[in-house]
Design goal:
By secondary structure, the protein is an alpha+beta fold. The chain folds into two domains: 38 residues; 118 residues, Rieske [2Fe-2S] iron-sulphur domain (Rieske Iron-sulfur Protein). The protein contains two helices and eleven strands, in the order ααβββββββββββ. It starts with 20 loop residues before the first helix and ends in a 14-residue tail after the last strand. Bound molecules: FE2/S2 (inorganic) cluster. FE2/S2 (inorganic) cluster binds next to loops.
Amino acid sequence: MSTSDPPSTPPPASASGPASSSDASDAQPRPARRTVTLAVVVGGCALAAAVGIPAAAFVSAPIGAKGAEGKWVRTLRFDQLSDGEPKRVAIVADRHDAWTLERGVELGSVWLVKHGNEVSAFSAVCPHLGCSVNVAPAATGAGAPSGFACPCHTSAFGPDGKRTSGPSPRDLDSLATRLEDGFVAVDFRRFRIGIPEKVEA
Ligand code: FES
């Protein structure tokens, strides 16, 4: 053949010639390769779930979801109260919502009134529109129970918390008490204002 002759066309690959490596992989049955791929995907998902689910639970768990503290709050010692003499005390406790916890926060205040071995507690929030209730000036002389009064719209309440006059739609909101190691503890709660019913807020 002369140098000007066009190169000869390579012969077509013979079906009986040696197989290349790609040819060899192509020769594997396709169902087997799909099985391997599926196993890898399933294994990966299982691993992601094992790691991811506990992490998601940690991130989404609110502080108050477990171990939330009760509403019983200690105030002053029982022997610091004088019979029939209302005493206002601050309610200081930890405050937590779904995500945050604050220590030693003043949540509000209540009036305590001792009667013998019993202690009554009233919310200091006026049920009318939420002003702060004070002890009313004594009406019938020294030592007489004076009750409570609201300075905003002149609602008045007896020493037992019963409404006696004014626009308040209900009595003062009473709260449960108990003695804890000589201290008066109060079951502190808030109630909706402006309605006749005592409904927790
Ligand atoms: S807020 Fe107390 S009388 Fe109105």
